[in-house]
Write a structure and sequence with these properties.
By secondary structure, the chain is of the alpha+beta class. The protein has one domain: Beta-Lactamase (2-Layer Sandwich), CATH 3.30.450.40. 33% of the residues lie in helices and 28% in strands. It contains 2 helices and 3 strands, in the order H-E-E-E-H. Strands 1-2-3 form a 3-stranded antiparallel sheet. Strand 2 and strand 3 form a beta hairpin. The longest helix is centred in the last third of the chain and has 23 residues. The two termini are 17 Å apart. About 8% of the residues have low confidence.
Length: 88
């Protein structure tokens, strides 16, 4: 998940592509959340390769935006960045 923090936006890893051969039967849908482009954490869903991706992606994106909004409300934001859409 820490690798996903650097990329930003929703990332989909299907069947362990890349370095994750251990996950060849699974897929990940991951998105960072945080304040003003600074990733505080990552939120993800792991499921079978045949999961409903459109629903998983929209849900992960939505919950990550809620968490980003919560962090922004609690900790403020850096000038110029006022929306959770910064990760999209």
């Amino acid at each position: 998940l820490t690798e996903m923090l650097e990329v930003g936006g929703v990332q989909v890893i299907i069947g362990g592509e890349g370095r994750w051969n251990e996950l060849k039967e699974c897929s990940l849908v991951v998105s960072p959340y945080g304040v003003s482009g600074e990733a505080t954490g990552a939120l993800g869903v792991m499921g079978p390769m045949r999961m409903p991706y459109s629903r998983a992606i929209s849900t992960v994106r939505y919950v990550a935006s809620l968490l980003s909004d919560l962090f922004r409300d609690l900790y403020g934001s850096v000038e110029g960045m006022t929306s959770s859409e910064e990760w999209e």
